[in-house]
Amino acid sequence: MVFGTLYTFPGDHPRSIGIKAVAKANDLDLTIVEEPRIPEHLEVSKLGKVPAFHGEDGLKLFECIAIAIHVTSQNEKTTLFGQTKQHYVNILKWMSFFNMEIIIPMVEQYLQLVGIRPYNKDTVDTYDKMTQAAVDVVEEHLNGKNFLVGEDLTLADIFCAGIIAFGFQFFYGRSWRQANPNVTRWYQSIANQSIYSAVTQKVEFLEEPKLTNVAPPEKAEMLEKGATAAAIDDDDDDVLAVAE
């Protein structure tokens, strides 16, 4: 029986990876619609944000954390919510932190560096510093730890790895990884977990960043760098795909 429909963008959308991973692990028949802003999607999310979820029972959800919690909760024996109430609230804390403090400024850099928004070197530098300041919090937290919360894999790890994968795809070269060994080790460990790797393409570590703080080249060159066609489309409704 179909559990519901997830509206998202094509490929590995950062805020959808964790949802798809847990749905598959819970053997939920989740229909993935990679065509956003169609009427059925807008019925669920009036603003056309992704991801959005429409359950077969009529439940309509937007906001990625709410969807991730709902999908995870379908397994009454799940261990992904941690072992205590304190674990649970800390899982929510880290999911919210990555979803706000890391992906948003990171995407703001990306949008300028691929020519979607007007490029301003100082603004990009500011967003880079904002992102790194947040990552520094995670780097310190993960010192001596294998997981974000507790001693076992939780929803926080799966969801947050999907978020920061965007950094490893475009920004995090060898020198960055050497300077951030705890985050790198943690991400690599989570990305190799079967629950995660079953629904996403493996991100190959970069020797050098694909994107640096220089004025963007022409669109054709950006395609060669790995930017998706949707991400460099002129339509602002599409180019903000990652940010939504």
In short:
By secondary structure, the chain is α+β, with helices and mostly antiparallel strands.
Question: How does the SSE layout of this entry go?
Answer:
Layout: E1 2-7, H1 17-25, E2 29-33, H2 39-44, E3 52-55, E4 60-62, H3 64-72, H4 85-113, H5 121-141, H6 155-170, H7 174-179, H8 181-191, H9 194-197, H10 219-225, H11 236-239
How would you describe what is shown here?
With 244 residues, the protein is of the alpha+beta class. 50% of the residues lie in helices and 7% in strands. It has 11 helices and 4 strands; from the N terminus they run βαβαββααααααααα. It has helices at 17-25, 39-44, 64-72, 85-113, 121-141, 155-170, 174-179, 181-191, 194-197, 219-225, 236-239; strands at residues 2-7, 29-33, 52-55, 60-62. It has a 4-stranded mixed sheet, covered by helices on one side. Strand 3 and strand 4 form a beta hairpin. The longest helix has 29 residues, at 85-113.
Give structural attributes.
244 residues, alpha+beta, four-stranded mixed sheet, 11 helices, 7% strand
Going across the major beta sheet, what is the strand order? 2-1-3-4
Structural class category: alpha+beta
What is the strand tally? 4
Shape: globular
Instruction: Write the element-wise H/E pattern from the N-terminal end onward.
Output: EHEHEEHHHHHHHHH
Name the beta content range. 5-15%
| Helical content band | 40-55%
First-residue to last-residue Cα separation: 29 Å
**Overall mean confidence score, pLDDT:** 91
Low-confidence stretches: 228-241
Profile the largest sheet. 4 strands, mixed
How many separate helices? 11
Rg, nearest Å: 18 Å
